# Entry
Amino acid sequence: MTHVLLIRLAGPLQSWGMASRFAARRDSHSRPSKSAVIGMCAAALGLPRSMGLEEPEQPTGAEEPRKLTLFGELARADFAVRADHPGIPVRDYHTVGAGTYPLRPRDLITDHRRAAAVSASLDAATGDRFGHHTLTDWYGAPKKIAADPHSGVLVSGELTRSALITERWYLADATFLVGLQHESADILDTVRQALEHPRRLLWLGRKSCPPCGTLGLGVVPGDLDTAFRTHRRLPGPDDTTDPARRRPWAWFQVPPSERGATPVQDQPVSFDALRPEHTTRWEVRRRITIDPDAAEWKDIIP
# Structure
């Protein structure tokens, strides 16, 4: 028999990136990815990023099947997400740099390039004070750090003398019901408790998007489809009596042989900080007709 952990993902902003890591345009998927949800659960449990899917091989000599780690158990759980409130796409337009920056004495000591760029202003200065010296359109890329060859201090390894423009997409006022299906109710309940008392900070795709209210809704017997049909839509900012909203869209993880299945590259293999790895899983999309006598939600903190 299988059980389903129901998770509520809601907040002012969410952003579920799929393919735009550190790009000028950072998109958002229309729904949470399996990798993001499993990563959130692993963070709540305090699992190390280096944890693999299987326990390390023991030097016993016997060829026994290796046991799955807790991360491995989570990764093999079937995944589904129901878009109770899909949210509104929001674009955040960023410009960084291209201003005029006052310099401090330490800027010239630690970075010889700044000292060379402002040398004419320094030579023309008089008096025993450092004075006011500026550089225009001087911006150091913060993610590319290198040691200055003269001072040895870590400074920006790449300089861009024009504005950096980025475009970031979010989902505003979205609420999703996520289901993880597994044979062990104990493992799922452990995750539920961890989501309510996490060991690490949690966020909805990006660090600027914290979740709000209740996360772990409970563990119920059955499969994902039954769990989604027998529970009402979660409350949200766009509650309406529109009949179409009573049949929300849902995406279910399925075997690749199932008709209509499409591939998604978000099956987690490793969350290693230097070499994260994902592989392919398959999913189908269908509308959920919620039963008239579906269970009401109780004790949810919005």
